[in-house]
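User: Before I run my own analysis I want an independent prediction to cross-check against. Here's the chain; please return only the structure tokens and, at the end, one sentence I can use as a sanity check.
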Amino acid sequence: YEIGISNGDTFSAFFSANHHIRLSLLAGGKLPSLLKETEYYLTMVEKHENLISGRYFLIFQETIKVLIDKRHKLDGEDDSMESLCIERLSETIYFHRALQSYWIGYSERCLHYAQKLFQMGASGRHHRLIITFYYGLNAFTLLKRKSTAKLRKIPKDAITLMKDAAEHSRWNFLNKMHLLEAELSSFEGRNEEAQSSYAAAILASRSSRFIHEQGLACELAGFHFQKIGNVQRACRFFDQAKSCYTEWGSPMKVESISHQQEKLHCNNFEWTR
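Assistant: Structure tokens:
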């Protein structure tokens, strides 16, 4: 970015900045720092009148703000907005709306935008793989309300894709594969397999330094142990999840976990972290 700006090559500068924010967000970069960086880049694209780059940074800014505070007002869902004439930008919009929706618990909205992304034949492979992971996890929430063959197929297909992706990049996809397998085992009542897969997902997330997905794996493990009646272990995993989400910089997720801990009276249990 700095080299591009100093040489007057704003296209390369903003392309690099865009790439940096996008990947940092997906890798679990600290949200307050990413928000500060994104807002800096927004001032720069305004200064250089780069409208297209500005739209991307506004999308990133919205996602980061939502992950920090669920109460942040989302943009409307008018898919006829002028920006959608740019296919790559519309792909980014669908991707981020699906991502936002998963993290704040809007499962139907997540399903809707993930499917809109998948309908775009030319969408980027990385975007599709990441959303496939969340699409698979999201299906388990929907299955609690209505079990259909179509919904049951979603996580199984996602596991197949994550396994293939992990063969090429264990760093990026092994934890995702394990977490999907854990959720499937939990859903099907294979509790020992679920426990093993949650542990593998947590370890792989930690190894890759994906603090947000480590927190997610701990959170979902907590819900699993709550479901099978092991409240003490559930509380332990919720405590670990809260620590991860605190490090990530998401008060929204910290608050959500704290409410869950209060419901389970987790303060009655003591342990050493």
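Sanity check: The radius of gyration is 19 Å.
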